Recover the amino acids of this structure.
């Protein structure tokens, strides 16, 4: 399977299921690549996989593809590969790859189950832009017969917040779209803030859609709890000191939207 | 026992009451004056080392640890097991008076403490049927490996990590003279990074001058200020690199006095603070203030003579006056953004995890 086919496979995965996380699609493509790989040695296999991950990162430069690819590589190699027969080793790696894929496909559901207990009856929730994990959380809270209202920022430049509002309306959740500039205004009304994350960095902070940092600083000033929901494959090996320190390729995603870094606020 | 041959060094001058539980020695009265060399049980290279410590000829925690390990190598080479004794137990007992002698010359640093623990463990682990020559060779090899892995190679690994954090156009602030930070800056300069350095210095040690000398020799653009000007210079600074004397188990950083000041002001200006420290300096002690355990240097160092006039020449006669020359202070983890170790970049609060992993390894 050459690199062009790999990217094609990845793009088909993404377009077939718009709800799938980009990391999951990337890992599915990598697993397919592994199954069709023709190399003769373990070292050659690893090299090919690393090159494949690099190629996927060029196709979709989001943080999740980068972290997902690295975690996939680490997970499948975390086993005894001492069998002299290469095809046996490859089978072991494919098995572990399938296991990894199965685990992470269930992660959104697990996150939703853990999180919806934070939403109490009558809560007013603020969220930023459109996050599928947050949508799942709110969906499971609504299914649990909880009554709550949601404020979504419209999140320019792509107005993703409006899409989120549509999806929430279809679930019969009362939702209001607010301007990005109105976060400071609305903060006193809300009870808690829930956002998703594109990546979770080593210092404990997150990388997310531009505007998240402002929301976090505002919520700290108003002493409102700020929750982040993210699957574990989004943990990336990065330790940025400030906004400038985040690699540029993570700041501009394939959807041409800027991302910002959210560092945990200093303990005051 | 052997310890009775080593006289106790007496304290000098009035001690400020908050630090009365610590020792304060005078540089003009080294311990070596009170012991007669041939009759002593102390090995001559240890005596030499003690003198170098107490006079400040060997200073800096890496330098002190390496000098200590080299002196111990000499001791092991000259050692011969007395009859009816076993090497592991006897050698450890022989080291005890040396260590208490060195402690009196200058209190042991955390890195030295860890090195000594390591050597004692290696000595006790020598199987009793091992021949003396073989055992000595093994110990010498262990010490060489320790110095190589924990100090030399660790410095290389830390430089590699740290250079990623230095970008072109950076203005880097350093304090005092840390061998590790100087190494990192020199490596970054070799790798063609464009940056300039601001060296902050403080009395009475004025160690910044040594750092300045080393950096300027390489061709790095440097500015030199005293610590009183740090809030003036900080708006220009993009990053602060600090060395550490020890990293405590609760995430506090113990370093040269003045470091916590710089970290505090840097935090106020939102400048990232990076601490560079090898893992052998991590210690299990927990401290939240600089009083409980510290080192008091010679108070006479604070006296300055200008134009032939020394104002504090007879400060001892003034009953209400005390001179305090502190050596270390502790910085809380809230002021430190990143710790660079040879294991990678970790937040300050992950120090107990590293200690736990190290203990499991051993």
């Amino acid at each position: 399977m050459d690199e062009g086919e790999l990217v094609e496979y990845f793009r088909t995965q993404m377009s077939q299921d718009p709800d799938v996380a980009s990391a999951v699609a990337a890992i599915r493509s990598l697993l397919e690549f592994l199954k069709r790989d023709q190399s003769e040695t373990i070292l050659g296999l690893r090299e090919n996989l690393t090159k494949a991950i690099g190629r996927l990162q060029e196709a979709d430069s989001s943080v999740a593809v980068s972290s997902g690819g690295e975690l996939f590589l680490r997970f499948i190699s975390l086993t005894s590969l001492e069998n002299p027969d290469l095809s046996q080793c490859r089978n072991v790696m494919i098995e572990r790859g399938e296991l990894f894929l199965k685990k992470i496909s269930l992660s959104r559901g697990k996150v939703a189950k853990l999180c919806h207990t934070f939403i109490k009856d009558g809560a007013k929730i603020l969220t930023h832009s459109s996050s599928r994990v947050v949508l799942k959380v709110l969906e499971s809270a609504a299914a649990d017969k909880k009554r709550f209202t949601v404020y979504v920022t419209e999140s320019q430049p792509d107005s993703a917040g409006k899409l989120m509002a549509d999806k929430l309306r279809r679930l019969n959740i009362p939702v209001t779209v607010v301007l990005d500039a109105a976060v400071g205004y609305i903060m006193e009304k809300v009870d808690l803030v829930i956002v998703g994350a594109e990546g979770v960095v080593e210092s404990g902070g997150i990388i997310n859609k531009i505007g998240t940092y402002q929301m976090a600083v505002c919520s700290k000033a108003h002493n409102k709890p700020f929750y982040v929901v993210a699957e574990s494959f989004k943990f990336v090996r990065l330790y940025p000191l400030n906004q400038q320190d985040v690699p540029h390729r993570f700041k501009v995603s394939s959807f041409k939207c800027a991302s910002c870094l959210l560092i945990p606020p200093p303990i005051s | 026992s052997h310890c009775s041959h080593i006289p106790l060094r007496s304290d000098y001058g009035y001690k400020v009451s908050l630090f009365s539980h610590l020792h304060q020695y005078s540089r003009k009265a080294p311990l070596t004056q009170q012991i007669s060399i041939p009759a002593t049980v102390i090995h001559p290279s240890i005596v030499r080392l003690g003198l170098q410590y107490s006079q400040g000829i060997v200073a800096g925690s890496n330098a002190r640890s390496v000098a200590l390990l080299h002196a111990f190598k000499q001791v092991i080479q000259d050692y011969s097991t007395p009859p009816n004794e076993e090497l592991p137990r006897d050698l450890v007992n022989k080291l005890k008076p040396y260590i208490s002698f060195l402690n009196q010359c200058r209190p042991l640093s955390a890195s030295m403490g860890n090195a000594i623990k390591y050597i004692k463990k290696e000595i006790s682990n020598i199987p009793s049927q091992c021949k003396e020559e073989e055992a000595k060779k093994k110990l010498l090899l262990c010490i060489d490996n320790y110095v190589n892995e924990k100090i030399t190679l660790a410095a290389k690994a830390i430089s590699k990590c740290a250079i990623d954090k230095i970008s072109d156009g950076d203005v880097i602030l350093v304090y005092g003279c840390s061998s590790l930070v100087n190494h990192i800056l020199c490596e970054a300069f070799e790798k063609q990074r464009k940056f300039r350095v601001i060296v902050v210095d403080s009395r009475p040690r004025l160690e910044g001058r040594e750092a300045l000398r080393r950096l300027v020799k390489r061709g790095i653009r440097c500015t030199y200020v005293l610590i009183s000007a740090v809030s003036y210079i900080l708006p220009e600074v993009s990053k602060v690199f600090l060395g550490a004397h020890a990293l405590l188990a609760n995430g506090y950083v113990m370093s040269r006095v003045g470091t916590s000041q710089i970290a505090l002001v840097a935090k106020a200006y939102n400048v990232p603070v990076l601490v560079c420290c090898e893992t052998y300096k991590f210690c299990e002690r927990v401290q939240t203030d600089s009083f409980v355990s510290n080192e008091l240097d010679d108070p006479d160092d604070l006296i300055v003579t200008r134009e032939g006039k020394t104002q504090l020449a007879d400060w001892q006669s003034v009953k209400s006056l005390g001179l305090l020359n502190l050596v270390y202070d502790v910085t809380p983890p809230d002021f430190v953004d990143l710790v660079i170790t040879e294991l990678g970049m970790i937040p300050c609060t992950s120090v107990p995890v590293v200690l736990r992993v190290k203990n499991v390894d051993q």
Q: What stands out?
A: The mean pLDDT of chain A is 86. The two ends of chain A are 54 Å apart (CA to CA). Chain A has eleven helices and eight strands. Residues 86-105 of chain A form the longest helix (20 residues).
